[in-house]
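Sequence in, structure out.
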Amino acid sequence: MPSSSTPTPSTGPLQGLKVVEMGQLIAGPFAAKTLGDLGADVIKIEPPEGGDPLRQWRLIQDGTSVWWQVQSRNKRSVAIDLRQPEGQALARELVDQADILVENFRPGTLEGWGMDYATLSATNPGLILLRISGYGQTGPYRDKPGFGVIGEAMGGLRHLTGEPGRVPVRCGVSIGDTLASLHGVIGILAALNHRHATGQGQVIDVALHEAVFNVMESLLPEYSAFGAVREPAGSALPGIAPSNAYRCRDGQVLVAGNGDSIFRRLMTAIGRTDLAERPDLATNSGRVASVAEVDAAIEAWTQQRTVSEVLELLDEAKVPVGRIYTARDIAEDPHYRAREMILTQHTRDGHVVEVPGIVPKLSLTPGAVRQAAPHLGEDTEAVLRELGRSPAEVAALRARGLIR
């Protein structure tokens, strides 16, 4: 993979699309990263001093987060001071040539820079604008600050994560931001299809809590129909049985035996044909009523065996089962390698780091990592030259502190 700032030619399905990213941290940048993985030319606008704060998040190698190597691959970095009117004018020029603008600022920020959609679309009517915010662009909460963790709480997810009677826990990653990003990408692809038919762009408004709420399955209809408030259940999946984590001699496994025929195979494999043949356990509703008895029978069997033994025996019985993976497990798993879900990426500083592969996988126009994550402002001059700025004009902008 090349380590220069010039990307290799794109063959992805979004080849030819130009994206301007005006966001930071996770929600907006993850959406733009996904578009870049699929072939779009992504120009990321960063503040000249410090850049995107994600550059300094979590574990740092030679002054830069290794997370940055994933989040900002397939992007070009342009450092522009958007606090200054002339910097805002430069950004508008970039947006004027773009197909898509991605931003995740608090509502009103773009408008304060003179970049409301009416103004932008007046000169670029096909522009698609993705706006990700805590609470959306409208409504009584629109002006409140919101991060992914708050969206997870308001969306209903955080209440369910944890053990009954204990403080809820987070899932370990910024799932609220990522869900909002993926919903934003879905909106972009739908808007592109509409633009193909009409030539007209539009605004996509994604709120963090709404993206979380959208994946909460039966949470609301159960309350609406029965007044039932779903509560945390630890590792179990309430209303579906058996589906839980079970202790082994040297760890834990997850077993999903909730299909009717799968349940019979599971009970036979653990030597409980009596449960396999019980009429009241033949369907999910009966198993839910006796879930404590069923879970106890499974764990009595798993506790006598190692994780590897349980995996082997239940694989033979064609029962869905899996170990609980750590980062080491993922890195050493042959299936990840065979599916190209672990890629070797060369950073701009000469390091080699393994990163997640491309999702989704397309048969004819697969995505690719075409270039490494950029240094701050590394592509500023090249992008401004594409706008028609001369070397002297670029030097003057740099001298005035407008760009880096």
